[in-house]
Amino acid sequence: MPVTIDPWRITGQPEIDSYVGGRVELAVLLVNCLAVTTAHGRPVTPPQSGEERRAAINAQLAAAGRPPSALTVADADRLAEVAGQLRPVFGAGDRILAVVAQLNDLLIRHQAVANLHDHPDRPPTLAFHRADAGLVDAWAADMGTALAMVIGVGQSIRLGACQAGKCSLVFFDTTRNASRRFCDLSCQNRAKASAYRARRRA
Questions:
Q1: What are the boundaries of each domain within the chain?
Q2: Model confidence pLDDT, tens digit, residues 9-46
Q3: Beta strands of the chain (E only): which ranges?
Q4: 0.85 cut: is pTM over it?
Q5: CA-to-CA separations, 129 to 78, 86, 103, 137, 193, in angstroms, rounded
Q6: How many CB atoms lie under 10 A from the CB of residue 200?
Q7: What number does CATH give the domain 14-201?
Q8: Contact 15, 9 (CB under 8 A)
């Protein structure tokens, strides 16, 4: 018998929702850092070398108030590949079925598996990767599973891509009615100004 889950509120426990949301936000951070070529109306060049990628990831983690990661240059290069694979999940729209197939492949490749990790000074914590997984597999499994959970409860619309011109930044829409269309206020204002000029020309 299929289990019915209330859309978006995956469970009644805010800790679990926070865990899933945090992994989706990590996916947003990596995609925007490593896999977009336009932002706020301008072309951008993603970091090209492993060292540049590692520095960019840690800079974005710091900007988001997250602790720095001990990732290696090789890890950063592999995470760039993961970010490129996760990018189509955001703003998928009618392409969601094709995206799901790619996401399933990622989950298998990085050996995603839900399990409890032991900690000597606190209760066991839920994770979506093996306890012995390396950093890249752990991050990819956690991010991929969190995205799959959002999609699986019928909320893929919350995995958005900016709709302003020349901006491919992505975001996680946590508004009540899933109405967000832009990565931030600057792109929203650009889109409004562009629409106003188009109306004036018409």
A1: 14-201
A2: 544 445 557 889 999 999 999 999 999 999 999 999 99
A3: 38-39, 42-43, 115-119, 122-127, 159-161, 170-172
A4: yes
A5: 17, 17, 15, 7, 45
A6: 7
A7: 1.10.3300.10
A8: no
